[in-house]
Amino acid sequence: MSTDRVVLVTGGNRGIGRAIAERFVRDGYRVAVTARSGEGPEGTLTVRADVTDAAALDAAFTEVEQQLGPVEIVVANAGITKDTLLLRMSEDDFDSVVATNLGGTFRVVKRASKGMLRARFGRVILISSVVGLLGSAGQVNYSASKSALVGFARSLTRELGGRGITANVVAPGFIETDMTAELPEETQKQYKASIPAGRFATPDEVAGVVTWLAGDDAGYISGAVIPVDGGLGMGH
Fold first, then answer.
1. What are the boundaries of each domain within the chain?
2. Is residue 179 within 8 Å of residue 162, measured between CB atoms?
3. Which CATH superfamily is domain 6-225 in?
4. Cβ neighbours, 10 Å, residue 192
5. Is 2 in a helix, a strand, or coil?
6. Most buried among 18, 87, 181, 223, using CB within 10 Å?
């Protein structure tokens, strides 16, 4: 179903965020992406913003509202990693990852919710990770920031669920991106052996779930965690 609703994808200049933005463009949405550098895919409006900076985000939203209209669907995808074992993890390694992955989501969703409340319609889609619930050695900071999105979406559902607004979490597993392509072949083989599907996902397989959650068919789904991980994190 094609629609011209306005979507904002944070971190939409590369990886999964870019694939999500491309899929929304293909489906006929009006799409804006935030990026600290680089540009979003063709057919999108790129606005400069760092999700840790509330004032920059506010300005970015204002620009999107002026050019495309009020944001009806927000995909909080921007994230960073600073992987290291707990005993070696610095305060900054922890704080900066939480400030971007969790704090960034808070700032983006808070700003987007104003327009959603006025419209009595909204789709909040938070991009988590399989490690948010499965855990991963060397990723205490990242995993904690990603599992926190579950509590965020569920609390938001209880606050705003009666206003036509849904909030859901998508938890991707291993995805074919530049990052996974750089892993040694042996490491890739080991990872694939632990995934029941026996392969990594394409970014578009994640994007398809996100666009489905944004559409009318998912209007009664809220507070859900949808894994796109080939069965890696089952039972969580």
1. 6-225
2. no
3. NAD(P)-binding Rossmann-like Domain (3.40.50.720)
4. 14
5. coil
6. 18
**Alpha helix (H) residue ranges in the chain:** 15-26, 54-67, 91-98, 104-119, 131-134, 140-160, 178-181, 185-194, 203-214
pTM across the whole model: 0.96
Q: Residues for the chain: how many in total?
A: 236
Contact 61, 112 (CB under 8 A): yes
Catalytic status, residue 220: no
Which tokens go with 143?
């995993």
The answer to whether 2 and 158 have CB atoms below 8 angstroms apart is no
Whose tokens are 């971007």? That residue is 100
What are the pLDDT digits (tens) for 54-85? 999 999 999 999 999 999 999 999 999 999 99
Catalytic position from the list 29, 142, 191, 220 = 142
